[in-house]
Design goal:
Blueprint lengths: L9 E5 L7 H11 L3 E5 L2 H6 L2 H8 L2 E2 L7 H15 L3 E6 L5 H4 L9 H25 L2 E11 L11 H25 L2 E7 L13 H11 L7 H12 L10 E4 L10 H6 L7
Length: about 270
Amino acid sequence: MAYNLLKGKRGIISGALDKNSIAWKVAEKAHEEGATFVLTNAPIAMRMGEINKLAEKTNSQIIPADATSIDDLTNLFTKSQEILGGKIDFVLHSIGMSVNIRKKIPYVESNYDYFAKGIDVSAMSLHKMLAVAMKLDAINEWGSVVALTYMAAQRTFPFYTDMADIKAMLESIARSFGYHYGLAKKVRVNTVSQSPTKTTAGTGIKGFGDFFDYANAIAPLGNATAEDCANYCITLFSDLTKMVTMQNLFHDGGYSTTGVSNVVMESLGVKAEE
């Protein structure tokens, strides 16, 4: 059911790779809720994905952009306003990449060139995106920027390696830039810390399947799906959350505040107390 929460709003959605992507689901939901938007991704990711199908489905145009390039981001925000007919109301930052994880390099043996690349692509890109938008005055007052993160920024998950540190930086940028952008233009900046989700990127992490099941057993509501996350992002883009900014918002079925569950204890042969 649609509620017209984004009727008349214009946006930029990054990171939609295929139908399993959270960004893909956000685009579908934003379209249902009345928004118009452009889609963007790095040229190499666009060749690997199916973004043209999403563009056709949502009647959107695609602007290729390397999120680490100030020139590309300037072009993205400039052309988006031309295509959409005005300033932007919402932006989704769904960009993450770790060469160390891709190459299965243990955290304590991290390749620092790869580490720096991951920081630039997955965290610094948010700073660059916000800086360009602010310089161009491209986002309307009370606009909303949401970046996707993961709670490995707060707790140690060994298999998440350098992405844990990178996500911590991403969340810090959202807080720090959120202050300045809020003060200057009343633009909101938040991060959403999502459950383990069976996306193309997520399932590429070693041991993901077992951890997905573990998190699902811990969370009293179970793991939140990509579609659940998209619904949450839509509320953050809407005017219903106009006073929410500089927050890291857990969207994980209660996992982040549950110490242990009866299901997990019983799986270890421990009789859980009621």
